[in-house]
Amino acid sequence: MEPDAHLGEAAELYAIGALDAAERTAADAHIARCIECARRVGEAEETVLALERDVHVDPLAAAVAVPLRLRRREVPAWWVAVAAAAALIAGTLLPGLFAQRDTATLAMVHSHFNHAQFSGPNAPPAKVIYARDRSWYYVIVEGSHRYDVYGLHDGQSVSLGTTQPKGATSELFWQRREQFDRIELRGDGKAIETASIR
Amino acid sequence: MRDPALEDGFARRDAKAYDAAYRAFGARMQATALRLLRDREAARECVQDVFLHLWRHPSGYVSARGSLEAFLVTCARNAALTRLRSGIRQQKMIASLDPSQGYLMEEDPIERDRIARALAQLTEGQASVVERAYYRGMTLAEVAAELAIPIGTVKGRLSSALRSLRRSLIPEASNGT
After folding, report:
1. Is residue A180 a contact partner of residue A197, using CB atoms and an 8 Å limit?
2. A59 touches chain B (CB under 8 A)
3. Are the C-beta atoms of A198 and A116 separated by less than 8 Å?
4. What is the 3-state secondary structure (H, E, C) of A70-118?
5. Model's pTM, two decimal places?
6. Nearest residue in chain A measured CA to CA from B52
């Protein structure tokens, strides 16, 4: 796409996301200078909006329930230093206690992940956070009780280990690429609650 | 109904206008992203990402372009497409998308009928590329390969289909205004 060439039919392709990254960048540069093409893109965008109106939305629902964040949370430099020192002390004095949580935190930093809530009658609040590519699963249960954790897929169950008390929670981080449909918490051999992995 | 004060504020990168736009259009943007991603959390992230990106790169919107709502919904759709196309697992998901199946979303029957009638007015060739490129999120190359037609033909059909849909769905468009 030439920088000064009008978009022509690319205006509609731009609006529906059919241009590749380079074409899109060139189109953006042109639209910024050419009101005629900006209007044509705007018309195509109105068509996209019209095609999206078949879904009923509640303006008070989901999306706006979470406040808009226009800045990523920034951590002050002094806090990084304090946290690093605390981690060093804790790691030295209590080896192993923080290792699993650190590994889980690093996995989350380096991955895209989802989470699912466990549900079951009279069961404690619990969540599983898992990599979207299913390369790790991190189970967190409120309270200090230990639970056996199982991954279920196609009627087969795999033992992932036992949650370990970490202050107010009991946790298990399991790192291996495995596809599960559900994660189950068991106590005394009985299923207590499950979470669906989607 | 367009809100000129809101649109001008958004174009000027006014934080209050961003917040108002999020409250006014965020739910529609999320529904659009959810249709493609089928993951509420990912759709919600998509909406946040769009606003954050525009906040950092504010040259994208001017009111002369068109309505802010259309601009933001299109941005959300494109952000969802980028996520969808970013990995092999997602590519498999694209192939399995069935546009006839809603995903936990409540339909507006009147709009649904209006859109169905507009789509029915497309030629067979136009309808086949719209279904794949718009509703399934396939790339132009994927559409061309699946339909065994040149990519230029896909582009031409998509562009003419969108213009035809505009005339059907937006009454003032067919009056030339």
Report:
1. yes
2. yes
3. yes
4. CCCCCCCHHHHHHHHHHHHHHHHHCCCCCHHHHHHHHHHHCCCEEEEEC
5. 0.62
6. A70
Within 13 Å and on the Cβ side, how many CA atoms surround B33?
29
CA distance B3 to B168: 24
ipTM summary value? 0.87
Residues 6+ apart with CB under 8 A from B7: B61, B63, B67, B68
A56 interfaces chain B, CB cutoff of 8 Å? yes
Confirm if B68 and B10 have CB atoms less than 8 A apart. yes
Contact check, Cβ <8 Å, A54/B107:
yes
Nearest CA in chain A to B54: A70
- Contacts with A11 from chain B: Cβ below 8 Å: 159
Nearest CA to CA, how far is B147 from chain A (Å)? Answer: 16
C-alpha radius of gyration, chain A, whole number: 25
pLDDT digit string, tens, across residues A62-112: 555 677 877 654 445 545 455 555 545 555 444 454 456 667 776 776 778
Percentage of chain B lying above the pLDDT 70 cut: 86
Residues of A in contact with B42 (CB under 8 A): 114
Q: Which of A81-90, A149-158, B69-78, B88-97 has the highest mean pLDDT?
A: B69-78
User: Looking up tokens 């004095």, which residue turns up?
Assistant: A93
